[in-house]
Here is the input.
Amino acid sequence: MRVECSDCGAVADPLGICRCGGLPEFVLEPLRLDPIGLRRLVRERRASYEPLFASGVWRWRELLPAIPADAIVSLAEGNVPLYASDAGARYAGVDRLAYLHLGMNPTGSFKDLGMTVAISAAKAGGARAVVCASTGNTASSMAAYAARAGLAAYAIVPHGRVSDAKLAQMQEYGAQLIEIDGSFDDAFASLHSVRDAAVVNSVNAYRIEGQKCAAFAILEARAWSVPDWVVLPGGNLGNISALAKGFREALALGLIDRLPRLALVRAERGIDTTASAIAVGNPQSRNRASRALEQFHGIELSVSDEAILDAKAHIGREGIGCEPASAASLAGVRALRQAQGDNAIAPDADVVAILTGHVLKDARGPAITALRGVYPERQSRGRDDKAYA
Ligand code: F0G
Here is the structure.
């Protein structure tokens, strides 16, 4: 597959930033398969006992950069549920809503879809070490896949702004933790301080290729019917770029005949949000995300921390749960339902909200919202106390 700069179109290196400052992106070549054949191939792979096809990313191998099978590092990522939610639909005020729960991936976030491709490419290319800047999930995912690949991993994280669970997780997988003063943006700016390591942030074009498979997962789970809206939280804006690429390719391949609208939900409080995963001030994929919003007739909006935590409590009470940043999706659907004109989600809309991280990724949820009475009171009793009512 050819690689081009996503800003100026010049030939590019998948791991390097273009001279114009743009990010590299793979360009899909025409396939020999028609859409019916491609759908059938992927369905057959899903049912096969071939270990590689236990991955919801590598089942789409023809649409990914060519990597020799023996270099592929997979943890059977990408097999995530699309949960229909009547309660979520009522909460947001729409007819139909489902959650694509990407928190149900091996390390508990959507990052695994991209990391399997980035780490496989690093291994195939003979890298010894990988590095990323992270609010926690990218680093946890990198740490796991690097460990599987036998590569050293360096995680640069903003001190005091990453959940304990994520810090524990990246150390469990053996990554070297580098905590810096400042925000995610400062961590990103110090990536160069780790030498001779491949950068696996979403500026790495391989990451986008894996993450685009989330679009295919939505479509496959819906028997190839396109939702009206796909709503997701945004931080560094790699994920919306990837999702848009997935839908564009599905359209180009004839798998679908129209595009959904996209809504990108950011935290009103910016780098001071309690949804620490999306506390990013200067997103690296700003340009391609803006282009995606244009192409998909999309909307970008910000929601308050209160709205995020209220939505998180709601998702928890459905028995699904997610980390704070993920709940920005549902908060966003609710806000757009109440918006006016072309910026509104209509009451009869069919919506997919993406949940990006698992509930156990950040266990402060009930602690920070308990005061507002969204969660039941906690009770503690000794063993001689009467049974619960
Ligand atoms: N949701 C969660 C749970 C995340 O961890 C992130 C990003 C996003 C949404 C936003 O995705 O950056 O592609 O726009 N987390 C990065 C990290 C910044 O370091 O783990 P994005």
In short: The two ends are 63 Å apart (CA to CA). The chain is about 35% helix and 15% strand. The CA atoms of residues 47 and 181 lie 48 Å apart.
